[in-house]
Specification:
Length: 165
């Protein structure tokens, strides 16, 4: 007896033991880079910074490829407003500075207090800085310390702002 329904071969789903289907793995790296770049603003803005960092952290957790592309953006713009953030950033800076460039620093003087040595160390370890904003520093800042920045960084900084937030 012949069936009236034509035979249709449906694609089989991968078995649990086979590798999972990764739709992004077939895309060119440039397309994936554009996806990552378009998810977060490239410059600091106080209204969007928390969301920007959260989005980039989520992308870092998505896959190794997304992490490789999003991690430099995560550290490209840094705002430090607590002592714990300063310590964590300083403790990991030496290893990270070799592979990731911090372009913009936004530093809250309340977190530094009287310990401005930490400020100068943070600035001196970054050779790719383009913008520095210092907010609410109650102690006097010795601007001559900025001359100690690495020469590539000192010549490329286009914006230093001192203001009260």
């Amino acid at each position: 007896m012949t069936s009236l329904c034509p035979r249709v071969d449906y694609p089989t789903l991968p078995s649990p033991s086979s590798s999972p289907f990764r739709p992004f793995s077939q895309l060119p790296i440039e397309v994936i880079r554009n996806i990552v770049d378009s998810t977060a603003p490239s410059h600091y803005h106080p209204d969007t910074y928390p969301e920007r960092q959260s989005t980039l952290r989520s992308l870092c957790l998505t896959s190794r490829l997304f992490c490789q592309l999003a991690k430099p953006l995560l550290y490209a713009v840094v705002r430090l407003s607590t002592r714990d953030q300063i310590n964590a950033f300083r403790d990991t800076e030496q290893a990270r500075a070799k592979e990731i460039e911090t372009r913009e620093f936004f530093l809250d003087g309340q977190a530094f207090g009287e310990q401005l040595g930490d400020l100068y160390v943070l600035l001196a370890t970054n050779s790719s800085l383009r913008k520095i904003e210092l907010c609410d520093f109650e102690t006097e800042i010795d601007l001559s310390q900025f001359a100690r920045l690495k020469s590539e960084s000192a010549s490329s900084i286009s914006y230093i702002a001192l203001f009260s937030c």
